[in-house]
Design goal:
- There is one protein chain.
- Helices cover about 30% and strands about 25% of the residues.
- The chain is built from 13 helices and 20 strands.
- The protein has helices at about 45-55, 75-80, 95-100, 140-150, 175-190, 200-205, 245, 295-310, 315-320, 330-340, 415-435, 485-500, 510-520, and strands at about 15-20, 30-35, 40-45, 55-60, 85-90, 100-105, 105-110, 120-130, 130-135, 160-165, 195, 210-220, 225-235, 275-280, 360-370, 380-390, 400-410, 440, 445, 465-470.
- Strands 5, 6, 7, 12, 13 and 14 form a 6-stranded mixed β-sheet that branches.
- A hairpin with a 5-residue loop joins strand 16 (about 380-390) and strand 17.
- The longest helix is centred in the last third of the chain and has 20 residues, at about 415-435.
Length: about 525
């Protein structure tokens, strides 16, 4: 039970009773395996296992302990215990903020996301004669090997992980968990066992991309320049333990607060006074890494905020940014993108559509260089977007029509591979920005199928125009995540250009767009 819950749930101490007689009449049952809170039925055939799963009578402790993560996600993250970790603290910032003639303070909210692998996780394990052979789609085979060894009381040398391509996820889905499940069940019956999750199990138990709250204080001085930038980001920890270790009692079910949330937390803009704080926190639901990690939400805040200040300063969004940017490769990238997209300078939302016009168009810009790994981290590729979209004032529906991306990852070894990565980044991050959010009740995940967790459809894909800036004398920086990082901000900025309203919570659903339009009037 408690699908997708983390350390707050009684995982490992929840089982009350299992009624073996409830499946005794079913054909093909090999063994009912119960190890602490871990329960599995090994059957000869798949449909027999499904029947046993559906009919096995199990009693669990009642638990409804998750906070309100639907209407109350913002308040939950505000109230969630945090440990402040200072990343940059310029002198006199409080005095400057208190005296700002034009303060701009805003909260930016990022939801829990699913990796949403179209194929559920699957693994095969053969544990016999003091050896464990695992066929796995894990992205993390070295750590998985350690987990399997601990789970089965073997040495790492006795565990062999055969890594195979599985359904994609760009992050950690349920692949490690099914390996551990299969290993325990194979050890129990002394035969090879295959475990494949059902859709509702994959959605329920895969470690989510975690929610994030970013709170910004700052604003303009009398000359309409950025005077100060005070940035706090709370990204609850995402290093979920392999589930079978907790259920079987091999690992204690306890909160693990790690230093996270600081990827690209310091903007590349040279603001005169900055304070940047990462607020480390325990998980709220079971979570693990996902494409862009905390950088994507942090840049959503960075690039939305400066876009708002450019509007208040009555300046072009790109020209205003360039006042504070001195990285030559960033400047080259942005100039190349302006030519690529045919950028026309001017303030955002300078040509509002007539009130009678239903579908209105907008264009937005965002830029980032992705910094990853332990703070201060490593700089990866530079990427910038220009996003063209249309939005219905009547329904709130968004159509992302075209995305121009300029991308600099240093020396390009395989241009086709980089181009494919950029396309994948754009498609996935567009889907996340306009559609995706996981839902929960007090006992766990409720977005258990595609109706409850829609993703971008083929007929909704934007046209993607990619410009690769090759720097053969520079080291290759990698292209797996960087092009996704400006996405939500570029789309949000295009929405502002179209509608004149600012959305600070992802995803930009029709309901939120209509609510923002109503509030603006």
């Amino acid at each position: 039970p408690y699908a997708g819950a983390d350390s707050s749930a009684p995982l490992g101490k929840a089982l009350v009773a299992v009624d073996a007689a409830s499946i005794a009449h079913l054909p093909g049952i090999v063994k009912l395996v119960v190890i602490n809170d871990f329960i599995g039925v090994v059957a000869e055939r798949e449909e027999q296992a499904i029947a046993a799963m559906n009919q096995l009578q199990v009693t669990w402790r009642d638990w409804q302990g998750l906070p309100d993560l639907a209407a109350g996600l913002h308040d939950t993250l505000v109230a969630h215990p945090k440990q402040d970790r200072m990343l940059q603290d310029d002198a006199e910032i409080e005095q400057i903020i208190s005296a700002l003639p034009t303060p701009v303070n805003a909260d930016y909210l990022w939801p829990f996301h699913l990796h949403a692998s179209i194929g559920p996780s699957c693994a095969v394990a053969d544990v016999r004669d003091g050896q464990a052979e695992i066929w796995s789609g894990s992205q993390n085979p070295h750590d998985l090997r350690k987990d399997i060894a601990k789970l089965l009381d073997l040495t790492e040398e006795q565990v062999h992980i055969q890594r195979l391509d599985a359904s994609g996820c760009y992050g950690r889905n349920g692949a490690d968990d099914v390996c551990a499940d299969a290993a325990l069940l194979s050890q129990a019956v002394g035969k090879p066992v295959r475990v494949q999750l059902m859709r509702e199990q994959e959605n329920g138990w895969e470690p989510k991309g975690t929610a994030q709250l970013i709170r910004v204080r700052g604003g303009l001085d009398a000359a309409r320049q950025v005077a100060a930038y005070d940035f706090k980001t709370c990204y609850p920890s995402n290093n979920a333990v392999t589930l079978a270790l907790v259920l079987s009692g091999k690992v204690a079910n306890q909160a693990d607060v790690q230093q996270m949330g600081d990827r690209t937390a310091i903007p590349q803009y040279r603001y005169p006074h900055m304070r940047v704080v990462a607020q480390d926190a325990a998980p709220i639901v079971r979570a693990s890494w996902m494409r862009g990690v905390s950088a994507l939400p942090n840049v959503f805040a960075h690039e939305s905020w400066i876009d708002e200040l450019a509007y208040l300063a009555d300046d072009d969004p790109i020209a205003y940014r360039l006042r504070y940017l001195d990285d030559p490769r960033a400047l080259t990238l942005i100039e190349a993108l302006k030519k690529q997209a045919g950028w026309r300078p001017g303030r955002a939302h300078r040509h509002p559509a007539p009130a009678s016009q239903e579908w209105v168009s907008g264009r937005g810009f965002a830029y980032a260089r992705y910094f990853h790994s332990k703070f201060p981290g490593f700089g990866a590729a530079w990427a910038a977007w220009v996003c063209d979209l249309m939005v219905s004032r009547r329904t709130g529906q968004i159509k992302v029509k075209k995305v121009f991306v300029a991308h600099d990852c240093g020396r390009i070894v395989n241009p086709a591979g980089v181009r494919h990565q950029v396309h994948g980044n754009v498609i996935q991050s567009t889907s996340r920005a306009i559609k995706e959010f996981a839902t929960f009740d007090g006992a766990g995940t409720t977005s258990l199928e595609w109706g409850g967790y829609p993703i971008l459809r083929f007929d909704e894909l934007p046209d993607v125009d990619v410009q690769l800036l090759d720097n053969p004398d520079q080291p290759p920086m990698g292209a797996g995540e960087s092009a996704s990082v400006p996405s939500a901000a570029a789309i949000g900025n295009a929405l502002f250009d179209a509608l004149g309203v600012r959305l600070r919570e992802v995803p930009f659903t029709p309901e939120r767009i209509l609510q923002a339009l109503t509030s603006a009037h």
